Amino acid sequence: MESLPINEIFYSLQGEGAQTGKAMIFIRLAGCNLHCSYCDTDFSVSEILSLQQLLARIEQFPSTEILWTGGEPLLRLNGDIVQFFKKAGYRQSIETNGTIPTIEGLDYITCSPKPEAFSKLHINFPNGVDEWRFPFGEGIPLPPEISNLPPATNYYVSPIFDLHKAISQQQSALLKCIAFVLEHPKWQMSVQTHKLVGFR
User: Fold this and answer.
1) Measured on CA atoms in the order 108, 144, 41, 16, is the torsion positive or negative?
2) 91: helix, coil or strand?
3) CA 107 to CA 184: how far, in whole Å?
4) Would you say 92 and 53 are in contact if contact means Cβ atoms under 8 Å apart?
5) What is the pLDDT of residue 103?
């Protein structure tokens, strides 16, 4: 039986992107292949669970929506794991950094590409994704032109906020995102609602 290194499991609302406000079971897998300065996850903490143990943990929640996140969940996930939870009745979304090819069976793909992934997006997502959500802040490049990206239903830029500072004190990335969307109206801005409102 396969197992997964779990950083944390929690039940909350999705705070950003096209699924904002949806009740989801967040399964954060340990480990990442990047070291982003704004990452707010402690990957030194993990617990190894079999798929049956993980299923038993999440069955306590009323939702059948899983969000695989990390770190980088595609370091650990594979098609067999996705099929296991699909057979158990779960719809599965993923948030990925774009550096690793996607897998079959996922119901919703959010790619939040880091600069290291820009040259790999057509290879890793030949059929496109459900949403592109590009983080934006100081020292981070603007997203490529939509015509240079694999297809998606939704195109977002998302200002990066420091968890340790009040959002009202962090105007630079927000204003740049607003200006970008006004100049490129096929894009939308996605703000991290959970940080604004104060939920998990």
Assistant:
1) negative
2) strand
3) 28
4) no
5) 96
Could you write out the DSSP letters of every residue in 144-196? PPGGGS---SEEEEEE---TTS-GGG-HHHHHHHHHHHHHSTTSEE---HHHH
Which stretches of the chain score pLDDT less than 70? 1, 37-40, 43-45, 161-170, 195-200
> What's residue 140's pLDDT?
80
- Give the DSSP H or E segment for 121: helix 121-124
Q: Which of these, 20, 37, 170, lies nearest to 115 by C-alpha position?
A: 37
135-158: pLDDT as tens digits: 887 778 889 999 999 999 999 999
**Residue 134 burial (CB < 10 Å; 0-12/13-18/19+)?**
buried
Q: What is residue 9's predicted lDDT score, i.e. its pLDDT? A: 97
164: which residues sit within 8 A by CB, 6+ positions away?
none
pTM of the model: 0.91
E-strand stretches of the chain: 3-13, 23-29, 47-50, 65-69, 91-96, 108-111, 131-136, 154-159, 188-189
For residue 123, give Cα distances in angstroms to 21, 68, 101, 108, 190. 31, 21, 7, 18, 26
